[in-house]
Please model this.
Amino acid sequence: MLVAILYNQPPADATADDLDVLVQRDTVAGALERLGHVVRHVPCTLDLDSVHKQLAQSRPDVVFNLVESLGGSDRLMPLATVLVEGLHLPYTGCRTPAIIDTSDKLRAKAQMIAAGLPTPGWSTVPPASAAKCAFASGTYIIKAIAEHASIGLDDSSVVSVTDAEELSGLIHDRNRRLGRACFAEQFIDGREFNLSILAGDSGPQVLPTAEIDFSGLSAEKPRIVGYAAKWHSETDEYLQTPRTFDFPATDAPTLKQLIDLAQRCWTLFDLRGYARVDFRLDANGQAWILEINANPCLSPDAGFAAAVDQAGIPFDAAIDRILSAALP
Model:
């Protein structure tokens, strides 16, 4: 088959998270070629007319969608799949509605609340959803509403507040400094887990559970996977937050809870191909869904590839399953 790899073209001033899509592109291209497919690279920018012409002229059998951001904004990511749908071409990964629903964290959280799924309470300025929690003093983590890759997340994102006005001021300040809309989520100070899911002939397969090991961090540092922990390999945050797939037998009930919730997220958001669900576990053993990542990173050092390897699935076979899920 002719497979067009559609990916967001990094800007001239690209950062580490921007450039990672090129690693994904080359990794996926290698797997597809080993599987016997012909690959064409199609960079995607906000010049959508050019992208449309390239795809219309080449008429690939399927588009492998790796677009994560456009014009410096993750909010514009769904434009890529809308364009491909307009050409009536099959494409990998989640469909446009699922991308829209999951890339906006507040939209996703409101849907989880409506479906009875546990997600931490949150607050916005101004309020963006009637489903948000009533304010409670305590510890919050301030995040970008519609950005992935831990953009803007660092130690100062975790704040302790005593009143709503104080929290509003902190959100306003983060909005200004980051240049993106942010919200405050109640901080679950506990264990963190990632569950990757891969499509298969018998339905979605939840891959082995990964936990982020925070035990190496100094006591004064918050237990989070911030931007440095994801992208700056020379930092303590990166070096002291490895993932592990090893669990004692006593964790069996927790793992079962996580798998059940991940499967429910797949169904609720009508996910397709592959996905990842991130969790925190509180002191009472209750799992809380932080976010759903449609079309997670496919770089060799990313969590999805690690989970595929832990499951004993060759990476090329996983790419083949993602591709097969896109075909009629």
Q: What stands out?
A: The chain is about 35% helix and 20% strand. The two ends are 14 Å apart (CA to CA). The longest strand covers residues 191-198. The chain has three domains: 2-91, 119-186, 189-209+245-326.
